[in-house]
Amino acid sequence: MLIAYNEQQQPFLPYQYSREDLQRYRRQMKFYCPQCLQPVQLKIGQYNIPHFAHIADNSCVQLFAEGESQLHLQGKLQLFEWLRKLGHTVKLEPYLPELSQRPDMLVTKKQKQIAIEFQCSSISHEKWLLRTSGYAKNSIQPLWLFQTPQKQSNQGIQKIFISPIMQKVITTSTRGVSYLVTYDAKTSRFIYWTNLLHVHGHTFIGKVQEVPIHKQHFPFYEPKSITKEEFPLYWQLYKKLCKQFVYQRLLHSKKGVQDSFLRSSYELRFALTAMPDYVGVPVKDAEAIQMFSVEWQTILHHFSRRLLLLPHELCDEDIRSFLIQHNVEVTARAVQAIKNYGMVLEKSYQKTDYYPNIREQVYTHLFAIATIY
């Protein structure tokens, strides 16, 4: 921990002093955990950030985490000083007795409290939910900032992997742009992962941008939607991932003719090496269907053909029947995903040229609405 009470019950922040001063204070003063009020010892390493730790065999009754990494301590200090320099009212590691919780920082802004949690290590869904709901029940807005995964530090439009717990803090701007903000304590930069497009599982396509801490405001900037000129990069990446999926499925499927995707492709006369552009199309709410888009959309076309319909002509009952047949949970979002796909097809459909402008309609469906402001 970065803060403790001295014998006068005053908060003591060791990072504000030189190591020589801290060595003197360690001989002259006693320090106590702000949470359990038990004695703690001041750690002053040659290279590590000065901090406090509970004395061995003396566990904190409130179970405040020990053994914080240097990256976590470093990030907390950077963020704390950043908020102070911006003029915000901020407390470092305040203990909230009504919650028995201790956020990394607590910001008070216009009578509104924001608890900032800088997360460097893995955290279970249960613990994340417990802390998040605890804040919400006490009218405190939780803000989770994850340490940027080091493999995702480059800028530009790219394929990115977002862990399940980080997916829970994806937010949507007032302009309808989905995004995630992380912080890299190693480079003192905020990383914006914007215009997130879900592909499959934990894989997304997004636009990654960096903002140095000295240029970052709080609250965070709201990102703009990608332009029509940028969208071809999304489309090319998405289609590349579709091809990889089809190739892997062809190599590793053990179901043979029982594989609904491969059978549907064969009966529709789709060439697996060159699937038509109108299958494998990203649409809103597709996360609700636990299949790759190129798979469920191919099967959907086969299903529709047997009914002598086009996908955009399916009614709700048809859609629910399709989901049940293929063991997909029937939810409002899953039904809406198929409707969204149908709407994209309908707007692009021309009897003489089938789906000639599907890419343009996909861009309009996913991003264009966000630019109308």
From TrEMBL:
Q: Matching InterPro entries, A to Z?
A: CoiA-like_N, CoiA_nuc, Competence-induced_CoiA
Query: What is the protein's species of origin?
Result: Lysinibacillus agricola
> What region holds the Competence protein CoiA nuclease-like domain?
68-218
Task: Enumerate the Pfam families for this protein.
Answer: CoiA_N (PF25164), CoiA_nuc (PF06054)
Competence protein CoiA-like N-terminal domain sequence ranges:
16-60
Its protein name is: Competence protein CoiA
Q: Which domain of life is it from?
A: Bacteria
